[in-house]
Design brief:
Elements: H1 2-28, E1 33-35, E2 43-44, E3 60-63, E4 71-78, H2 82-85, E5 89-97, E6 103-104, E7 113-117, E8 120-124, E9 146-155, H3 167-174, E10 178-188
Parallel strand pairs: 2-10
Antiparallel strand pairs: 1-3, 3-6, 4-5, 4-9, 5-8, 7-8, 9-10
């Protein structure tokens, strides 16, 4: 009889654990995604968002922010620049984004402290141009198609990171605190 009770308790505990896992899985199926109204994934970024146009920051929207997210961080870079300058060129670093924020509008100014409305702010980090703010695609002519990766990180802490972070220092500070990552890639070629 005692064996049957132990077996039943183990079976019941296993069933509860299974149901909890299935519940968490269906909750996490709400995909963390990043999009832009200006271009679709793996398509060309319009000229007005580049150094040859108005150099406006691209509009970005996201959904499915995971539970437990305390802040968000965004990195935009060009790994194809490595064949030209020897390293990945960083075009935009934004962090301390409140988890309630769901978009970055077009044309954000190059301010270190970025107003997002409702009294909330984000911080713009240092790019490869050695200053804060968005720097649009600007590849040298004749270097082919460049891919611009936007990475939105959901973080388990924040928003409390100091001003002046580069991509590398941001990634070092958030190591072990990334809950999820959403990606969007745009392309641009200067002919």
């Amino acid at each position: 009889m005692i064996r049957h009770k132990k077996f039943f308790i183990i079976l019941l505990a296993g069933a509860v654990l299974f149901l909890m896992m299935v519940g968490n899985q269906s909750h996490s199926n709400q995909q963390f995604s990043l999009t832009s109204s200006a271009f679709s994934h793996n398509s060309a970024i319009p000229k007005k968002y580049t150094c040859l146009g108005a150099n406006l920051s691209t509009p970005l929207e996201w959904s499915g922010v995971p539970a437990g997210t305390k802040s968000l961080a965004l990195i935009m870079d060009d790994p194809d620049a490595e064949r030209v300058v020897g390293y990945t060129w960083v075009h935009w670093v934004v962090y301390n984004i409140p988890p309630s924020c769901r978009r970055l509008p077009e044309g954000l100014r190059a301010l270190e402290k970025l107003p997002l409305g409702n009294g909330t702010f984000a911080t713009q980090g240092i790019t490869s141009w050695k200053k804060p703010g968005y720097g649009g695609p600007c590849p040298p002519a004749g270097t082919g198609v460049h891919h611009y990766n936007y990475r939105l990180l959901a973080l388990s802490f924040g928003p409390e990171l100091p001003a002046g972070l580069t991509k590398a220092s941001l990634l070092e500070k958030v190591k072990g605190h990334i809950i999820a990552e959403a990606r969007l890639t745009g392309t641009y070629e200067r002919k």
